[in-house]
Amino acid sequence: AQSVAQPEDQVNVAEGNPLTVKCTYSVSGNPYLFWYVQYPNRGLQFLLKYITGDNLVKGSYGFEAEFNKSQTSFHLKKPSALVSDSALYFCAVRDITGFQKLVFGTGTRLLVSP
Amino acid sequence: DGGITQSPKYLFRKEGQNVTLSCEQNLNHDAMYWYRQDPGQGLRLIYYSQIVNDFQKGDIAEGYSVSREKKESFPLTVTSAQKNPTAFYLCASSIDLLNSYEQYFGPGTRLTVT
Protein backbone atom coordinates (compact mmCIF):
# COMPACT_ATOMS: atom_id res chain seq x y z
CA ALA A 1 0.00 0.00 0.00
CA GLN A 2 1.06 3.54 -0.64
CA SER A 3 2.09 5.47 2.44
CA VAL A 4 3.94 8.52 3.64
CA ALA A 5 5.75 9.08 6.90
CA GLN A 6 6.40 12.34 8.65
CA PRO A 7 9.01 11.51 11.26
CA GLU A 8 8.77 14.76 13.23
CA ASP A 9 5.70 15.68 15.23
CA GLN A 10 6.98 19.23 15.58
CA VAL A 11 9.61 21.44 14.03
CA ASN A 12 10.80 24.63 15.70
CA VAL A 13 12.61 27.32 13.78
CA ALA A 14 13.39 30.99 14.32
CA GLU A 15 11.97 33.58 11.99
CA GLY A 16 14.29 34.28 9.09
CA ASN A 17 15.98 30.89 9.26
CA PRO A 18 15.49 28.20 6.64
CA LEU A 19 12.97 25.49 7.45
CA THR A 20 12.61 21.87 6.43
CA VAL A 21 9.66 19.59 7.12
CA LYS A 22 10.46 15.98 6.33
CA CYS A 23 8.42 13.41 4.45
CA THR A 24 9.35 9.97 3.19
CA TYR A 25 7.19 7.82 1.00
CA SER A 26 6.60 4.20 0.13
CA VAL A 27 4.90 3.56 -3.20
CA SER A 28 4.55 1.10 -6.01
CA GLY A 29 5.36 2.80 -9.28
CA ASN A 30 5.85 6.49 -9.81
CA PRO A 31 4.67 8.62 -6.92
CA TYR A 32 2.31 11.56 -7.02
CA LEU A 33 3.25 13.56 -3.91
CA PHE A 34 1.62 16.54 -2.26
CA TRP A 35 1.98 19.00 0.58
CA TYR A 36 -0.95 20.61 2.33
CA VAL A 37 -1.03 23.18 5.14
CA GLN A 38 -3.65 23.55 7.85
CA TYR A 39 -4.02 26.68 9.96
CA PRO A 40 -5.78 26.35 13.34
CA ASN A 41 -9.41 25.23 13.06
CA ARG A 42 -9.33 25.50 9.29
CA GLY A 43 -9.43 23.13 6.37
CA LEU A 44 -6.37 22.02 4.44
CA GLN A 45 -4.87 24.23 1.76
CA PHE A 46 -2.90 22.86 -1.15
CA LEU A 47 0.75 23.99 -1.24
CA LEU A 48 2.40 22.04 -4.03
CA LYS A 49 2.60 18.75 -5.88
CA TYR A 50 5.11 16.54 -7.62
CA ILE A 51 3.92 14.37 -10.47
CA THR A 52 6.81 14.37 -12.91
CA GLY A 53 9.57 16.63 -14.16
CA ASP A 54 11.97 18.73 -12.10
CA ASN A 55 12.85 17.35 -8.72
CA LEU A 56 12.50 20.80 -7.15
CA VAL A 57 8.87 21.85 -7.06
CA LYS A 58 7.82 25.39 -6.23
CA GLY A 59 4.52 26.10 -4.55
CA SER A 60 2.49 28.69 -2.73
CA TYR A 61 3.75 31.17 -0.10
CA GLY A 62 7.41 30.68 -1.06
CA PHE A 63 7.48 26.98 -0.23
CA GLU A 64 9.27 24.41 -2.31
CA ALA A 65 9.82 20.67 -2.05
CA GLU A 66 12.59 18.45 -3.26
CA PHE A 67 11.76 15.03 -4.67
CA ASN A 68 14.56 12.54 -4.05
CA LYS A 69 13.91 9.15 -5.59
CA SER A 70 16.97 7.43 -4.15
CA GLN A 71 16.06 8.48 -0.62
CA THR A 72 12.29 8.19 -1.23
CA SER A 73 11.84 11.62 0.27
CA PHE A 74 9.82 14.71 -0.48
CA HIS A 75 10.91 17.30 2.07
CA LEU A 76 9.19 20.68 2.26
CA LYS A 77 11.49 23.68 2.44
CA LYS A 78 11.48 27.44 2.68
CA PRO A 79 14.59 29.64 2.62
CA SER A 80 13.36 32.11 5.22
CA ALA A 81 10.61 31.23 7.71
CA LEU A 82 7.87 33.64 8.78
CA VAL A 83 5.94 33.56 12.04
CA SER A 84 2.81 33.27 9.90
CA ASP A 85 4.11 29.95 8.53
CA SER A 86 3.30 28.36 11.89
CA ALA A 87 0.76 25.67 11.09
CA LEU A 88 0.24 21.94 10.65
CA TYR A 89 1.75 20.49 7.49
CA PHE A 90 0.63 17.27 5.83
CA CYS A 91 2.44 15.25 3.25
CA ALA A 92 0.25 13.05 1.03
CA VAL A 93 0.62 10.48 -1.72
CA ARG A 94 -1.80 9.27 -4.34
CA ASP A 95 -2.95 5.73 -3.72
CA ILE A 96 -2.87 3.64 -6.90
CA THR A 97 -5.52 1.23 -5.68
CA GLY A 98 -9.20 1.87 -6.02
CA PHE A 99 -9.99 5.41 -7.02
CA GLN A 100 -6.53 6.76 -6.32
CA LYS A 101 -7.41 8.54 -3.12
CA LEU A 102 -5.02 10.69 -1.16
CA VAL A 103 -3.17 8.98 1.69
CA PHE A 104 -2.05 11.50 4.28
CA GLY A 105 0.80 11.48 6.73
CA THR A 106 0.20 12.20 10.39
CA GLY A 107 1.23 15.82 10.10
CA THR A 108 4.08 17.96 11.39
CA ARG A 109 3.46 21.05 13.45
CA LEU A 110 5.74 23.93 12.48
CA LEU A 111 6.38 26.62 15.08
CA VAL A 112 8.23 29.71 13.94
CA SER A 113 9.37 31.92 16.78
CA PRO A 114 9.89 35.68 16.40
CA ASP B 1 -11.39 27.67 1.52
CA GLY B 2 -12.02 27.12 -2.18
CA GLY B 3 -15.81 27.49 -2.40
CA ILE B 4 -16.67 24.78 0.11
CA THR B 5 -18.71 25.64 3.14
CA GLN B 6 -19.28 23.53 6.20
CA SER B 7 -21.70 24.28 8.95
CA PRO B 8 -21.75 24.65 11.81
CA LYS B 9 -18.17 25.38 12.80
CA TYR B 10 -18.69 23.90 16.25
CA LEU B 11 -21.29 21.31 17.19
CA PHE B 12 -22.11 19.82 20.56
CA ARG B 13 -24.29 16.76 21.06
CA LYS B 14 -25.23 14.34 23.77
CA GLU B 15 -24.18 10.74 23.45
CA GLY B 16 -26.82 8.63 21.71
CA GLN B 17 -28.01 11.37 19.39
CA ASN B 18 -27.54 11.37 15.64
CA VAL B 19 -26.10 14.55 14.18
CA THR B 20 -25.80 15.79 10.60
CA LEU B 21 -22.90 17.88 9.33
CA SER B 22 -23.47 20.06 6.30
CA CYS B 23 -21.13 20.39 3.31
CA GLU B 24 -21.88 22.54 0.27
CA GLN B 25 -19.67 23.36 -2.70
CA ASN B 26 -20.08 25.83 -5.55
CA LEU B 27 -17.08 24.62 -7.56
CA ASN B 28 -19.17 22.43 -9.87
CA HIS B 29 -17.10 19.45 -8.75
CA ASP B 30 -18.41 15.95 -9.29
CA ALA B 31 -16.51 14.23 -6.48
CA MET B 32 -16.87 14.94 -2.77
CA TYR B 33 -15.29 13.45 0.31
CA TRP B 34 -15.58 13.33 4.09
CA TYR B 35 -12.57 12.97 6.34
CA ARG B 36 -12.12 12.67 10.05
CA GLN B 37 -9.10 14.27 11.71
CA ASP B 38 -7.82 13.22 15.12
CA PRO B 39 -4.64 14.50 16.78
CA GLY B 40 -1.58 12.57 15.65
CA GLN B 41 -3.52 10.49 13.12
CA GLY B 42 -3.74 12.68 10.08
CA LEU B 43 -6.84 12.48 7.93
CA ARG B 44 -8.88 9.34 7.48
CA LEU B 45 -11.43 8.90 4.71
CA ILE B 46 -15.00 8.22 5.85
CA TYR B 47 -17.07 8.31 2.65
CA TYR B 48 -16.71 9.59 -0.88
CA SER B 49 -19.03 10.26 -3.77
CA GLN B 50 -18.18 10.54 -7.43
CA ILE B 51 -21.58 11.61 -8.67
CA VAL B 52 -25.10 12.39 -7.53
CA ASN B 53 -26.91 9.45 -5.94
CA ASP B 54 -23.70 7.46 -5.66
CA PHE B 55 -21.35 7.13 -2.71
CA GLN B 56 -18.83 4.62 -1.42
CA LYS B 57 -17.41 3.72 1.97
CA GLY B 58 -13.95 4.89 2.80
CA ASP B 59 -11.58 3.49 5.39
CA ILE B 60 -13.64 4.23 8.51
CA ALA B 61 -17.31 4.29 7.45
CA GLU B 62 -18.75 2.42 10.42
CA GLY B 63 -21.16 4.57 12.40
CA TYR B 64 -21.52 7.16 9.63
CA SER B 65 -23.95 7.67 6.75
CA VAL B 66 -24.11 10.09 3.82
CA SER B 67 -26.39 11.14 1.01
CA ARG B 68 -25.76 12.86 -2.32
CA GLU B 69 -29.09 14.09 -3.63
CA LYS B 70 -27.61 17.20 -5.21
CA LYS B 71 -24.26 17.81 -6.85
CA GLU B 72 -23.54 20.69 -4.50
CA SER B 73 -24.35 18.94 -1.25
CA PHE B 74 -22.86 15.98 0.62
CA PRO B 75 -24.14 15.85 4.22
CA LEU B 76 -22.62 13.48 6.75
CA THR B 77 -24.63 11.92 9.57
CA VAL B 78 -22.77 10.75 12.62
CA THR B 79 -24.97 8.09 14.17
CA SER B 80 -25.15 6.85 17.71
CA ALA B 81 -23.35 3.71 16.50
CA GLN B 82 -20.11 5.66 16.09
CA LYS B 83 -18.15 4.76 19.20
CA ASN B 84 -15.89 7.77 19.35
CA PRO B 85 -17.53 10.60 17.39
CA THR B 86 -15.68 13.56 18.91
CA ALA B 87 -13.35 14.81 16.18
CA PHE B 88 -12.73 17.46 13.56
CA TYR B 89 -14.60 16.65 10.33
CA LEU B 90 -13.44 17.91 6.96
CA CYS B 91 -15.32 17.90 3.70
CA ALA B 92 -13.49 18.13 0.38
CA SER B 93 -14.20 18.06 -3.33
CA SER B 94 -12.37 17.46 -6.58
CA ILE B 95 -13.25 17.92 -10.23
CA ASP B 96 -13.85 14.22 -10.52
CA LEU B 97 -12.63 10.95 -9.09
CA LEU B 98 -9.79 10.71 -11.59
CA ASN B 99 -8.44 13.94 -10.14
CA SER B 100 -9.07 12.91 -6.56
CA TYR B 101 -5.52 13.79 -5.66
CA GLU B 102 -6.24 17.49 -6.14
CA GLN B 103 -8.81 18.23 -3.49
CA TYR B 104 -10.25 21.44 -2.13
CA PHE B 105 -11.16 21.44 1.54
CA GLY B 106 -13.82 23.16 3.57
CA PRO B 107 -13.07 24.88 6.90
CA GLY B 108 -14.21 21.90 8.96
CA THR B 109 -16.71 21.18 11.74
CA ARG B 110 -15.53 20.35 15.22
CA LEU B 111 -17.95 17.89 16.79
CA THR B 112 -17.96 17.28 20.52
CA VAL B 113 -20.12 14.51 21.94
CA THR B 114 -20.52 14.24 25.70
Features:
heterodimer, A: 114 residues, mainly beta, 6-stranded mixed β-sheet, 4-stranded antiparallel β-sheet, 51% strand, B: 114 residues, 7-stranded mixed β-sheet, 11 strands, 0% helix, globular
Spans of at least 5 consecutive residues with low confidence of chain A: none
Bin the helical content of chain A.
under 10%
First and last CA, distance of chain A: 40 Å
Helix content of chain B: under 10%
In N-to-C order, the SSE pattern of chain B is EEEEEEEEEEE
How would you state the average pLDDT of chain B, rounded? 92
Radius of gyration of chain A: 14 Å
Structure classification of chain A? mainly beta
Count all strands of chain B and give the number.
11
C-alpha termini separation of chain B: 29 Å
Short description:
The complex is a heterodimer of chains A (114) and B (114). Chain A has 114 residues and is an all-beta fold. Chain A has strands at residues 3-5, 10-14, 19-21, 24-26, 33-38, 44-50, 56-58, 64-68, 73-78, 87-94, 102-104, 108-113.
Structural overview:
By secondary structure, chain A is mostly beta strands. Chain A has strands at 3-5, 10-14, 19-21, 24-26, 33-38, 44-50, 56-58, 64-68, 73-78, 87-94, 102-104, 108-113. Chain B is globular. By secondary structure, chain B is mainly β. Chain B is built from no helices and eleven strands. Chain A binds chain B through residues 9, 32, 34, 36, 41-46, 49, 90, 92, 94, 99-102, 104-107, and chain B through 1-2, 4, 6, 9, 40-43, 45, 48, 50, 56, 58, 88, 90, 92, 97-98, 100-108, 110.
